[in-house]
Write a structure and sequence with these properties.
This protein is of the alpha+beta class. It has helices spanning 54-65, 87-99, and strands at residues 3-9, 16-22, 38-48, 68-73, 79-85, 106-112, 116-118, 126-128. Strands 3, 4, 5, 6, 7 and 8 form a 6-stranded mixed sheet that branches. It has a two-stranded antiparallel ribbon with strand order 1-2. Strand 1 (3-9) and strand 2 (16-22) form a beta hairpin.
Length: 130
């Protein structure tokens, strides 16, 4: 756990006493550390991935991991999208997209672009595009 020690004066005694504050990366559920580099990767998933709540489950998983980006159905019957976040979380999401997906999906093939470093997030959250 990363803690930061600050000094402050006690109101009662007037003496300087150390206080402990948590960094935002230590808050449970805050998976994005501000010190980690961020990356972007595009994906396309083939198989039975439309009409089986694949995008909804992808949205839930990406938000659970704290990733940004989007996903959408294509006219070719696939689901494609973009992931943004720390490399380890993108890798976890890629495994989920390739091997798990929604309960009723049948994933035949998953294509991903290499993780590209980005200076800033291009998306504020993960969304479904229509």
């Amino acid at each position: 756990m990363n803690n930061k020690i600050k000094s402050s004066k006690s109101i009662q005694t007037g003496q300087t006493v150390p206080t402990l504050t948590k960094l935002t990366s230590d808050i449970p559920g805050n998976k994005i550390s501000h010190s980690k580099k961020i990356y972007s990767s595009m994906f396309e998933i083939f198989g039975r991935v439309q009409g089986v709540y694949f995008r909804k489950h992808t949205l839930n998983k990406a938000r659970e991991l704290g990733l940004n980006g989007w996903c959408m159905n294509t006219s070719d019957g696939t689901v494609k999208g973009i992931l943004e976040g720390p490399q380890d979380l993108i890798s976890e999401m890629k495994l989920w997209l390739q091997h798990k997906g929604s309960p009723r999906s049948i994933i035949e093939k998953a294509i991903f672009t290499p993780n590209e470093p980005i200076a800033n997030y291009n998306f504020n959250s993960f969304t479904i595009r229509r």
